[in-house]
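Supplementary Methods S3. Complex input for the tetrahydrodeoxyuridine-bound model.
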Amino acid sequence: MDTADIPGLIREAYEAQKFSYAPYSKFYVGAALLTAQGRIYRGCNIENAAYSPTNCAERTAIFKAVSEGERDFEAIAIVGSRDEYLPPCGMCRQVMQEFCDRKTFQIILAKAPEDYRAYRLEEMLPEAFGL
Ligand code: THU
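Predicted complex, serialized as structure tokens:
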């Protein structure tokens, strides 16, 4: 993706964060997933009283997109509710590995629309298990 488009994708992640359901951890996460056709799917974390059914924001966005027929992704922006860059958990990285090109897919960790770090999936999940 064009670097000029990154702040817009980060803003979408902040919009997604508004719907975060995190009464247990009180850690509110938003993600915005960009498809190759330029569509954006938003996701938030959704917690559960039984804890393990909790779904991360990144997987919410990816599962929403895949369930709508999307399989071609360029980037994901992720924001958390602390003033830190929030790297995706291992499970979310493995889900990215299933659907995204390791060499080109960008994972954008943001503290603000103009304050972010971008990584390729291959950097975040080396020696990945896959098909
Ligand atoms: N969480 C995410 O949504 N994405 C991450 O990359 C890390 C963690 C959520 C899961 C849980 O609702 C809360 O953050 C605390 O772990």
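The helical segments are 6-17, 57-66, 90-99, 121-124. The radius of gyration is 14 Å.
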